[in-house]
């Protein structure tokens, strides 16, 4: 009885151990396959993203060049007006001072008026040029930032694609061995599982035999001594 019970416990323990080993082998095979699929997807995704960014770089560079040229032009114009506006303002003041000293000189008064008009025009143009320079600098920065973002995106996606490709190269050789390892482990698990039934049958039979023997013994004990 004890021997058959112990055999059943051992068979059940072996079957559980084999089932656990099968589950582990299957989980490993599934994980390796999933990791490979994820790495392959990452290669494709990052490669596509790098190409998409690259297709926009040329346009972004052209816009950057355009805005840089515009910013340079407005800056140069503002620099020139800083000089000319200052000079015209100074000249207008000099003529106005002279006209004030010669109030009866109509020509000098006309010259003072003309100089003042030119000085105002120069000052207005300088104000507009300063604003245009600020606006152009902002537009140039936007274009530069966009170009930098696209350039960095290309580099980042290319780096990520290369890293994912290394993962693919490392995982590919492990997929088949992991998958192949499942079959023998499953066979062992099936065999261990099948061994439980006869062990249980033997244990059940031993239990039944013991019960029958005990019943016979009880019957014998209940009979009168003379009739035994």
Q: Would you give an account of this structure?
A:
- With about 230 residues, this protein is mainly alpha-helical.
- It is built from three helices and no strands.
- The chain has helices spanning about 1-100, 105-180, 180-220.
- Helix 1 packs antiparallel against helix 2 and helix 1 (about 1-100) packs antiparallel against helix 3 (about 180-220).
- It starts with a helix and ends in a 6-residue tail after the last helix.
- About 15% of the residues are buried.
Features:
228 residues; mainly alpha
- Low-pLDDT sequence parts: none
Quick check: average pLDDT?
A: 87
Q: Give the radius of gyration.
A: 48 Å
Cα shape: rod-shaped
Number of helices: 3
Structural class call reads mainly alpha
In short:
This protein is an all-alpha fold and 228 residues long.
Fold topology:
Blueprint: H1 2-101, H2 106-180, H3 182-222
Helix pairs in contact: 1-2, 1-3
